Amino acid sequence: MDEEERDGDARPAMKRRPTVYQVAEKAGVSIATVSRALRGDGSVAAATRQRVLDAAEELAREQDEAATGGRRRPTVYQVAEKAGVSIATVSRALRDDGAVTAKTRQRVLDAVAELNWSPSRTAMALAGVANDTVAIVFPDLSGPYYANVIAGFESEVVDRGSAVMVLATHGRAASAQMVRDLSTRVDGLVIMDQTIPDKVVGEIAADVPVVLLARPSLPGVASVRTENADSAHKITRHVLGHARRRLRFLGDPDLSPDVRDRWLGFVRAHEDFELPAPEPLRAEGLAPEHGYDAALPILTDNGVDAIVCANDELASGVYRAAAEAGRSIPDEVAVTGWDDVNIALHLSPRLTTVRQPLRSLGATAGRLLFGQMESGTAQGEVLVTEMVIRESCGCEDVPPFYEFPTG
């Protein structure tokens, strides 16, 4: 049994607690209405809000009874009645958010103690979720890729009146638990790349709306990614069309699904030319220093005449390595990138690359997330990428939307 399975088995409560989907279904409203009702949004009618609260409490009570063999425990209604306050005031008093006077809060605490009541994890989690906040989870935050995705996501979210939380897992052993905990405090979650295992994604998606970003889709989970394999096929064919025959792909296909698809496009282009595709240069990451470290040995040995990079930052490291090795770009070594971030225009010669709509990627993730919160429907989208020809492949500078014929 692997670590994630043990971790999952050790947390059965995550699977037992009612979800926002169940509350919405029982109350006959949308997930977004549940969120607005639980945070006391004035746009929800009093009768609707009460119906949501009733549904949440009834579901919590049913599951508590199932877990305790049918024994009934005191309810939040009884606490509110004994303290002479509303259910919302009980919630605010327990959160101690400053909106309740000290005298009222003490009255609530006295009622809690007298009834020996403890708020269900479900009720508290639902209250935490309903805070008009959504989150996006990344494996890392270094580099312009993440900044552009965050900018697009934030613009979509802020326009809808919500706040954004950003979490970077950085490969920590506790990443799965970090994301689980975060999911109980937000209205919805975007999870990028392979930050957590599919099994954990499924568990979280059963509780709150989830959108996968730059990651293969899972059944019943919304997703958005960009097209990779076809554009990698095109740009590799373009380089081969310049009569380059000693190409290397720079990037580790095991690092992410996107890099893997770009590698597959590289291989397919070689098959078109009836050439064997050499093994990839497995850089340790996607930063400039990783490109430099991986490229310098083969450039020094004059073993390549073109390097197809998994992103623009790796390509910038190749430029430095080529300069140290005394190799001219593009006369001796053609170089291509991916993303078309700002650095692609400032390298000399300017970098031939594949443009990803990074801000649109983030904005689409936000739109899909809110769409799922409103309708409960998980949708998937694949965004178009396009080859941008500049000078680093050996071409004269041409219009940015030029595409080399692939037939």
From TrEMBL:
Gene3D superfamilies: 3.40.50.2300, lambda repressor-like DNA-binding domains. Keywords: DNA-binding, Repressor, Transcription, Transcription regulation. SUPFAM superfamilies: lambda repressor-like DNA-binding domains, Periplasmic binding protein-like I. One of its GO terms (molecular function) is transcription cis-regulatory region binding. Pfam families: LacI, Peripla_BP_3. Residues 18-72, 74-128 form the HTH lacI-type domain. This is LacI family transcriptional regulator. The lineage of its organism: Bacteria, Bacillati, Actinomycetota, Actinomycetes, Micromonosporales.
